[in-house]
Amino acid sequence: MKQRSVVLRAVGKRFGSREVLRGVHAEAAPGTIVSLVGSSGSGKTTLLRCMNGLESIDAGRIHIGGHLVEPNLGDAALTRLRADVGMVFQDYQLFPHLSVLANLCLAPRVVRKRSRADAERRATELLERVGLADRKDSRPSELSGGQRQRVALARALAQDAKVLLLDEPTSALDPHTREEVVQLLREVVKRGGSPLTLVLVTHDLQLAETLSDEVWRLVDGRLGEDTPAFVPNPP
User: Which helix (H) or strand (E) holds 63?
Assistant: First the structure.
């Protein structure tokens, strides 16, 4: 049986009477880059948030990063899930009162219980990797949009997640910065020890086609290999 880092089985989600996700099925192998596309309001971001437990699912189950997501998941299970499934938000959600270095060190120290020295060493390595070692003492407000995006990505990597979820990672970037972030995402998957799986929501179909190993298209709240909406990226 092939190893899978993400498995969606009959995932359903409602907001009141509106059914946003309708029996979603999909799978992704470790080290895969998946783009989640679809029209506005199709439920792309909702599905991404369900995979991290930020939205609860109403039906089905999700196996992700070694964790099981079911309806009515408890707080302890959510904490364990988010330690292994990182999230990079569209607005970055960096802590404005903390330096770049402190933003990266917070989760490893609180969630992984690492020492300050270990957390800072790992954070410094990641900042070098994203080309921002010289901005470690800066506040988020002192950075450009592209720099904040790279800090947000480095912060997610600092927790050593198995799966990384990204909401519109290039939407607010100029063309040059967009290419820098795309290249960084490619490098993130290739480097390191255990394979990292990326799932990203995007409206940029060109990005989805050039960056991704697989493209999942949400249509009427459904996606999967058994529908025409599933488009594997050609080699």
Answer: strand 59-64
Do 118 and 149 meet the contact criterion of CB atoms below 8 Å apart? Answer: no
What DSSP designation does 31 have? Answer: T
The model's pLDDT over 138-176, given as tens digits with 9 standing for 90+, comes to 999 999 988 998 899 899 889 888 999 999 988 877 888
Query: Does residue 151 contact residue 74 with C-beta atoms inside 8 Å?
Result: no
Domains in the chain, CATH or no CATH each: 6-90+161-223 (3.40.50.300)
The pLDDT tens digits for 14-27 are: 999 999 999 999 99
8 vs 86: CA distance, rounded Å: 17
The position carrying tokens 């402190």 is: 102
List the one residue out of 232, 164, 151 whose CA is nearest residue 196.
Answer: 164
Query: Which value, in Å, is the radius of gyration of the alpha carbons in the chain?
Result: 17
Q: What is the pTM of this model?
A: 0.88
User: Could you tell me if 219 and 55 are in contact, meaning their C-beta atoms sit under 8 angstroms apart?
Assistant: no
What is 95-125 written as a DSSP string? -TTS-HHHHHHHHHHHTS---HHHHHHHHHH
* H or E segment to which residue 176 belongs: helix 175-190
